[in-house]
Amino acid sequence: MTDDVMIDLQQVSKSYRGQKAPAVENVSMRIHRGEIVVLVGPSGCGKTTTMKMINRLIEPTGGRILVDGADVTALDATELRRRIGYVIQQVGLFPHMSVATNVGLVPKMLGWDRRRIEDRVDELLDLVGLDPAQYRHRLPRQLSGGQQQRVGVARALAADPPVMLMDEPFGATDPLTREKLQNEFLRLQEKLQKTIVFVTHDFDEAIKMGSRIAVLGERSRIRQFDTPEHLLANPADETVARFIGAGASLKQLNLRKVEAVDQEDAELVRLDESPASVLNRLETSGEWAVLTTDAERRPQRWITPSDLTPRHDNLDGVGIAATTVEPQTTLHDALDAMLGSSCGSAVVVDEAGRYRGIVSIESLMKAISDMREAERNHNRAVADIVPAPVVPAARTDGDRTVNGVQVPLDGGGPR
Ligand SMILES: Nc1ncnc2c1ncn2[C@@H]1O[C@H](COP(=O)(O)OP(=O)(O)OP(=O)(O)O)[C@@H](O)[C@H]1O
């Protein structure tokens, strides 16, 4: 095993008592340090069982699982919990315990002293965007669904585990909150570089979150294990193609994020500027609209000349609300946001909601057409390099059987 491999599933199987067929059969998979591997597949195919065997919430009935070179069956439970954080859809916060107690559970189990636990809890709440002073003492029911989910992530990170298992972590939230949580998590992951196994039903989420995606079939058999780009461009077989679903090219929009698009600058005005001065600015700048921001430079509304009349003595509520996106927002979601707003642009904001720039529908369309052009060139280059096979190749049905022997799927490292 190379140093680069963090989780190594070797011919892993699970047969539940009383079930004729195994839920998971002979799965081999290598997951590299720092990558997010997403498991997707039809309901009941064994995604959760596969994942839960990694932290031994479910005991395998065959095969071996190594985490950072150590066989998990040889580790004691406390050691395993320190190494592997776990986030689930239902969050699993204890309802009668405060946020701080919930987040501090694992450090407490590990015997940390009170002061160190308190400091860690505050640090983690900060990290997931919850002000410790405001949320530390709340009970889970006094939080929104999205906030509970953030606490769940903080709790999983408490002992700074190198590995995180996430089972539909954002599944129970509405689409907007979900998008926000995904963005926050990707931002966090840039800093933390954890090795993550992520289960989801949502293929768009898999494309957005995954360094690589494992498309699983019955009994967790790996049909294809590849980067989102390759998976979309070259589904291994009909089943994978069907699973990806219609509009694979549209789904490519989930691959690119707003940060990759050229940004422009807007003419900014403070909310406390006088309408007369704003009109003057609109005339002299030649812009079709100005963008109001609050004292923290958080964008508020677009104002065009026709929005301002002599009866306005301040800018409160004037113009149309600005649509905002984050650098991590996918082009798919950005396009959605723009189409849903009445102006053909979105304001890019940082994690604190402060202004960073503007993406217009034109620059978005240009990024999309550049992307398609690059892909066409790539496909042409590949077609030039790869000669047509003369001898029929060994059958590879996604789990890469070579002469009947399953070999670990190990193509490509972390992106
Ligand atoms: N405790 C159990 N006892 C017996 N069978 C089980 C048990 N848990 C899961 N199974 C079965 O094992 C198979 C795989 O279940 P698993 O929950 O891993 O699938 P999944 O892909 O995560 O499903 P979903 O997407 O619906 O959550 C299913 O057929 C399920 O009915």
Mean pLDDT: 83
Please outline the major beta sheet: 6 strands, mixed
CATH topology of the largest domain: Rossmann fold
Can you name the CATH architecture of the largest domain?
3-Layer(aba) Sandwich
Strand order of the largest sheet: 6-7-8-3-9-10
Number of helices: 15
List of distinct ligands in this structure: adenosine-5'-triphosphate
Rg over CA atoms, rounded to whole Å, is 25 Å
- What is the general shape? globular
Uncertain parts: 387-415
Instruction: Report the strand count.
Output: 19
What is the domain total for the residues?
2
Classify the helix fraction into a percent range: 25-40%
Distance between the termini: 20 Å
Provide the CATH superfamily of the largest domain: P-loop containing nucleotide triphosphate hydrolases
CATH class assignment of the largest domain: Alpha Beta
What is the strand content? 15-25%
User: Which class of secondary structure composition applies to the elements?
Assistant: alpha/beta
